[in-house]
Amino acid sequence: MGFLSKLFGKGTKTGQGTESEQGAKVEQDTKVEQGAKVDQVTTGAELGAKVEQVRSTEKPDDSLPYRTEKELIERFGGIAFDKQYDFATVIGNNNWNIDMGKEVISFEPNLDFPIQVLGTFSHSSETWLWAWANTKSGLSEHITQQALQLKKYGEEQEIDLFSNSSVDFSKDELHRIGLIASGMFDASAYYIADYGQGAMLVTIKSDLVDRQRQDDHLRILSVFPQLISQFEMNHKIALQWYLEEKSYKISEQGAQLIATKGGETITAEFDELSRLTNLKG
């Protein structure tokens, strides 16, 4: 997943222990060398994947519930991916350390961020276990609030990924959950903390990270093509949401979306299946 794979970090874990679904203990103070090689993550849907016909060209309706993972990625994927760039700037190449007792993740002495634990991924069995279902972990309800809210949402909207305690999985799917959760809860970022036997997915909320937000016009030209190359979605709807979140004024001319802000313009062209064919700005 290119850029996102850089946020699949390795480090150490201290404080209260957690266990994987197999019951294997995550060792405390595991040492990993600085700059350890990070595995590349496989890609998801290709750019030309077939998607549904575009819905209304009016501003998307944010009052309706999203009933599928695809709709959630369309709604939150762009802005959540965008935030990952700012987070990467803050943490640099530092390895991580999690203290469960303090409920924080650290990247160096002065970079401590409060976290919400969403769940864990087992490398050996390639399964995902939600934090609320990990009865052996001893995690507090406070640190699993977002995971519990996603469970409730999944039950209400019949989204199996959120409501099933354990799911067969691949590493790239961690980014799907991370993007959705980051967007839904207005997190500053998400992070995948690899501890050897598995990986823990957390969201982070920090004023320090939020202050790094860049209103970079050209970033959209990099973020959005990467997003749609990884996940299946209606490109037009997803771009509309992303541009709305970035406070662009959007108009439509035939097969084009034209977004303007501060004297700068982004133009997007789509085919008859709402797949992006050209993006320039």
From TrEMBL:
Compositionally biased spans, kind Basic and acidic residues: 22-36
InterPro entries the UniProt entry points to: DUF6882
Protein name: Uncharacterized protein
Species assigned in the record: Sphingobacterium ginsenosidimutans
Disordered: region residues: 1-39
A Pfam family hit: DUF6882
Domain of life: Bacteria
